[in-house]
Amino acid sequence: MYLKRILTALAVSAALPAASHATELEVTHWWTSGGEAAAVAELAKAFDASGDKWVDGAIAGSGGTARPIIISRILGGDPMGATQLNHGRQAEELIEAGLLLDLTDVAEKEGWKDIVNPPSLLESCTLDGRIYCAPINIHSWQWIWLSNAAYEKAGVPVPTNWEEFTAAAPKLEEAGIVPLAMGKQGWQQNGAFGVMVVAIAGVDAWKKVNVEKDAEVARGPEYAKVFEAAVNAREFAKDSNVQDWNQATNMVITGKAGGQIMGDWAQGEFQVAGQVAGEDYTCLPGLGDNEILDTAGDAFYFPKVDDPETTEAQKRLASLIISKDVQVAFNLKKGSLPIRGDVDLSSANDCMQKGLKILADGGIMPSGDQNLTPDTQTQIEDLMAEFWSGDMSAEDAQSRYADIIERAE
Amino acid sequence: MSATTEPSAARDPAPDGKPNPLFRNLSAKFASIPMIITALVVFVGGTIWTIVYSFTNSKLLPRTNFVGFDQYERLWSTRRWMVSIENLAIYGICSLILTLVIGFTLAALLDRKIRFENTFRTIFLYPFALSFIVTGLTWQWILNPDFGLQNVVRNWGWESFTFNPLNDPDTVIYGILIAGIWQGSGLIMCIMLAGLRGIDEDIWKAARVDGIGTVKTYLRIILPMMRPVIITSLVLIASGIIKLYDLVVAQTNGGPGIASEVPAKYVINYMFRAQNLGQGFAASTMMLLSVIIILIPWAYLEFGGRKRG
Q1: What kind of fold does domain A24-139+296-358 have according to CATH?
Q2: What ipTM was predicted for this assembly?
Q3: Long-range contacts of B121-130 (CB under 8 A, 24+ apart)
Q4: In chain B, which residue's Cα lies nearest the Cα of A71?
Q5: A143-294+372-407: CATH architecture
């Protein structure tokens, strides 16, 4: 009886792939916070509706925790159907080792080259002319989030750029408010520094250092100004005793801090707290000085498998990710920007609209992930962690920063 | 001919011939083969593999692109590595001495046949039952200036009391040291206590007859007799020092800045987060080397000395 049931099950499972289209795909990602999970659910819903089956493989913890697990599964011969990674150089070696699926035929058929905006997103999916990933969203770092209540309490107008922010800082301190909230983690400090580079030294200097790895520019006067500003920022943030980025964001939400330099994912926290952009909080892209956004974000990669059915399903998922409906549904929930310019996002809030406008005007730059290896980034993060927590002088920090750039590949 | 007779003799220890010593206790030897293979392949093999690949520029995947001592040069010019080594040295020396001293003192006090000995022993040993993660988090809270010790003492009325080791780069390693000693000294106390109980009562009687004071008896007579127990404690403490990782991760995660980084954390970070296997391997090889540098003179003294004596 029991044996018979097993045999029937086996026979059915053998017959199924031939009979129907449905294929199970396990998808790993590290989107686990409230808004992120809602966004993933949209994606899963769309995939299930298309006749396949989405098997959710969420990995708790940040990318730093999830990435080693994902990579070791691919290397260890236990590949998932698809996985989230940040587009950039993180998957470069996996592609070189021939472990990831080539999506070029899908991309050419659907004309990804013409619809993906900015084109740099697709470029970071490309190696030797072949396309290996499907970009899904854009997150940018270049934002400062300001608490309107904090500035009201201090009796100064809400700043519109970094210079005004600096000038208003002493007033905030007098009112017992921490001018700048900053989590004590290397990646946050490094990110904030990167934002200040673009705002103060300008995008050309940033490109010379991060794209061309020009150590002379990193030693030059433009970067010196940035390090001076960073010393100021360190002073503003000295009473901010929090670790995680969302704790720092919470200081801004509750008006304990004037502002925070953080990427647009911080917006999710303001939304959860029921705050309204423009009324309760203000966002300044590019610190108000230099309205330009980087185009970091997430992309899906598909490990190579032997089963042709699975390969087909992977390609179906790839084209689904790029499709208009999924782009709108996913990005509205996630608070990120879509990777194509031809979709309607009129229901997005004030800050997202600002971002969309900058994107449409072409105020974009490639992200650090797309240019620096994780190795170089870790070294810079270590330096920033040391700089922000100690009393390292601007000159020392600058020369050590330039040394790292000089060695970067 | 002999080739065919020998195995048959081994299978069946003939009444006439002597069994081949190689085949004596065959089943026991057979049973230990998996362990021997594990030791050779996993430990020795893995160690050699790591050392070889530390001379390559492997990034995410191991590659045999040899670059000589580049990884080591970079390692020793990295500030974070130097801070890690310095922290390990401070933590190691202090923890070695303090754990031994505190462990022995507690054991000697318990040894004075006090009342409620069992209760005290349980209390002192209990921290050892907690993982380093729990220990680290607990002490992070205790040492937090807003909720912990500093706040409690201030609420008692001593307003200017300041005790905030974890947020100062100069003192953070001592904050970790406190947690490490709290966790580890109970075990050492128990081992020492077992050693003390193993000392013959007659020694004490003889010392009392000679009119030697209690403290002096402990230091001059009992302690030297406990050499094997002390060696065991030393090995336990030392291995705990080298693998120091989870305590730091839980308590400070290397902060503030990089002030409480340790070598094991450097290895993990560079292998997995920075995707630079070569650098991680070089660092772990240096950790192995430092263990060997400490271990070889000790082994020479310990085992070489016994032969002479």
Answers
A1: D-Maltodextrin-Binding Protein; domain 2 (3.40.190)
A2: 0.73
A3: B121/B189, B121/B190, B121/B193, B124/B185, B124/B186, B124/B189, B124/B190, B125/B186, B125/B187, B125/B189, B125/B190, B126/B186, B127/B182, B127/B183, B127/B186, B128/B183, B128/B184, B128/B186, B128/B187, B130/B183
A4: B60
A5: 3-Layer(aba) Sandwich (3.40)
